[in-house]
Amino acid sequence: MKIQMVDLKGQYEKIKDEVNAGIQNCIDNTAFINGPAVKEFQLDFEKYLGVKHVIPCANGTDALQIAMMALDLKPGDEVICPAFTYVATAEVIGLLGLKPVMVDVDPKTFCIEMENLEKYITPNTKAIVPVHLYGQSADMEKIMEFAKKHKLFVIEDNAQAIGSDYTFADGTSKKTGTIGHIGCTSFFPSKNLGCYGDGGAIMTNDDDLALKIRMIANHGQEKKYYHKVLGCNSRLDTMQAEILKVKLKHLDEYSAARNKMANYYDENLNNIEGLEIPARAEYSNHVFHQYTLKVAKGKRDELQKYLAEKNIPSMIYYPLPLYKQEAFKQYVSEGFSLPVTEQLCSEVISLPVHTEFNQEVQDYIISEVKNFFQNN
Hints:
The protein has helices at 8-29, 36-49, 60-70, 88-95, 140-150, 207-217, 238-248, 251-269, 300-309, 339-347, 359-375, and strands at 53-57, 78-82, 99-103, 125-128, 153-157, 165-167, 173-175, 182-186, 200-204, 221-223, 226-227, 275-276, 291-295, 348-351. Helix content is 38%, strand content 15%. A 7-stranded mixed sheet has the order 1-9-8-5-4-2-3, sandwiched between helices. The chain is an alpha/beta fold. It is globular, with a radius of gyration of 21 Å. The model has no long low-confidence stretch (mean pLDDT 97). The two termini are 27 Å apart.
């Protein structure tokens, strides 16, 4: 059996009748753009998240860009974001003529670190983009308090943690992506809730923001051929909405399956010298978009090479801090460095985790990881 990071085919086989029926329905109706399924999925997703407004769009990167456009951020405004994340988070900031201010992350949760954020605040700071990395929430209660103090907008990048719950100090909870002023997510196929192409969504509880987001995503028009603002063309295809309608019904089941795998990894990979299993924040459950280990003493790349020789895939998310990427050098001073980000880029490695795994395969992965550390 070929081991995969994500088994989309195996997942499809279990829901193929529902998915195929939805695709055929789309073809039969020939409503390929803004067909009924888009609105149906929107309403289903709003109910699942407990949020007033979901605005489907073409992809997660568009979602971030449209969110920032809706907040009327101006060229030169500064937006705080983690340096340890996928490029899209900071990319859209730069594309809009804004300045990404990259900050360090917590070494345990990999999410934005709150203790030293004050030093990054300037008169130009207008927003903060927490990323719920690998499937676990950033500390949203502290982030919202920080944002309120400094009058900042909060845009949640929830592409990796859809379905995760954040619990506040008073015991109440909310889904990630619904706590900030705007939330954004991606439906890229490998995501926990993924379609079979590109797709994304924007979430908000603010009626005025929702109206503006819808306009921006549709060429800036509220009424056809009457354009109030400059916008873009970002739509979720009807066929993808049909698929997402089916998969949304299984999302909690998928999260449970990922947690079962993660728990088994934890039980068997804990207490290995030089290897650190993922931390679990008290304020958030984990939906394990990735199962990410930390490998000490410079052995991460050796481990990845060893696993590849054993036909075990692994991924490094992410090997280079954003501020060291050629595209972002203009935003940082020479010699700029963030210690935790630097460490994580040299230590993290993600093992396969998905909804269709069997224990025999997972036992094989675990045994080979153990073999590596016993012999190295």
